[in-house]
Known about the structure:
The protein is 5% helix and 43% strand.
Amino acid sequence: xxxxxxxxxxxxxxxxFDRQDWASAYCNVEEELNDYVLELVSGSLPEQLSGTLYxxxxxxxxxxxxxxxxxxxxxxxxxxxxxxNGKITFSNxxxxxxAWKEEEKAGKFIYRGxxxxxxxxxxxxxxxxxxLKNIANTHVVQLGNELLALWEAAGPHALNPNNLxxxxxxxxxxxLQPGEAFSAHPRxxxxxxxxxxxxxxxxxxxxxxxxxLMEFDNNGTSPSKLIxxxxxxxxxxxxxxxxxxxxxxxxxxxxxxxxNPIPFLIGQKGAAQCLRSKQGDKGKFLLIPRDxxxxxxxxxLTFDAxxxxxxxxxxxxxxxxxIIIESIYYKDFPSIAPHEDFRQINFDQIPEGxxxxxxxxxxxxxxxxVQISPQCCEFAMVNPRNQGLQSHYCWMAVAEQKTGxxxxxxxxxxxxxxxxxxxxxxxxxxxxxxxxxxxxPASKLEDEGWIIVLVWNSQRKATDLVILEASxxxxxxxxxxxxxxxxxxxxxxxxxxxxx
Length: 500
Ligand code: CO
């Protein structure tokens, strides 16, 4: 591991990165490539690794000199890396949303972004323009024989998995109403009740919030079919980005957060900038019984949650009368003020994410929280075969430094039983995105497989693809991609046997 320290800040804490190197990833993607053949720079491709990595993330961050206020407002672009028979190819294509087509034609932003991007013309031009721009930039998953590009405040866009062509907004065969919210964080039940299922949700927020929990058959041979559907109403405003599943429960963490829509209505802020942590208040866990489980049809349960703000969960599982849910907690809701430039952020002033495990004792209504690691982290996952079940290992993106907030530069594997850790690092000039764990189809061992991750190489000003051994994070293969891709959000691996 490369441990060179670039320079020290005034507080004497060593810094492992240069902020300009980090910020250099933010650029427009100007090219769309189709099945571009890649060469390995080093290493070799594992023989059993066969399938496609799909990633989604903002690919357009600037139009006619105006930058988005936050990268989350950038239009979704899908990256596909296909690995088969020792060959590796690369494709990328923007999701052709209606707003993307309109703005391409106009050559400027004509919609406001949820994270604060404004149309030109100041507050007057933005006031009372409450149209949502579905930017389809948060996640990409395969359901049935389609890819879905997801954005949580509106419906999914269906794409062709082979060439990434956009078919258009999908209502999933009549399941979704026009404009209905559909989460960007489905969970894939690996067969808790026989078939593989995609479990997901939509939230309608207001003074009270409605969660719609949906389960789709995802056996890989037929188009998606909705097999379970329930709605529950909860008190208060709910900002729910992610959730977790176990065989019997869908588990949500309703953060203690309030929404003041006035600055959004009068054109001063984006909707997400109007969220504030309710200081001193605790969030709530909402446990909704799954229709296929032991408590089907029963009412949801609620429990106090620990202090802090959560976007992402690692996993959840059941143990006797307890539910254990592992999540990444922030001290406060991280937001970017209207006058700040996201490329100039001071990492020290934003809280870092820390992995914690919370055990909910259902009969006693008690919770117990333990920190798994203090190190700044995001994008954690377990072996997908263990989704909803107790897992002994997890993989995540972490900062190079052991404490405090900093950009994600390394990949960490944690043994959840004894807290042993191992690392692969791209520091000082590399910056990692979400790692995807791919189990070795020829092995039953939980940590046998590969980690595949896109890395911003600030020296080359382009993106690298790195394949690591999941067991010890040794580097297996390195590929230079022919283009520069800004830091992405979520993605998934579709193995060749699940392709149609
Ligand atoms: Co997310």
